[in-house]
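Reply to dn_fold:

You asked what the input looked like. This is it:
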Amino acid sequence: GRISGMFMVDKNSDFVKVSSSSKFRTVLKVKKIQERKTQAELHQLEVDHAREEATLDEIKDTQKAALSDAVRRMKMKATEAQTSRAFIKQLSSEIDEQKDKVADIQSLKTEKREELVDRTKSTNMIEKLDKRIQAEEAKEIERKEQRLIDVLAQRIRAEIL
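and this is what came back:
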């Protein structure tokens, strides 16, 4: 057939058909790139999350050691006790901040997982649609070939008779 713009004109039949296979392949390629990008972003968030969790654990361990030290030296001078309390209070504040960072990253990871699921579903849907269209196009070609064979067979029969 002759291609006119985005439509394929088939001289052997009365219909005009949009060539959709190439469009779906392009959309599918884009969907797969988006899916891989989202997977990479999710992986980076998991790495960041592990790092922030480790930092939180370090601060907690430091605080625990400071508390143990304070308990061991209960009879220390008032100024030392005050300094120790200030340090422990500072560590508590750092723990709260670090917990917020960990929670934020956990939230981002959850969002990114949902985005990845959506992208995967969308890609799968386009793949199924592309396969269905390819199958329909193959059936249409088969029907045209069969029509041609039938016409040729009728002509041969007509010539014999």
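The first helix runs from residue 21 to 72.
Hope that clears it up.
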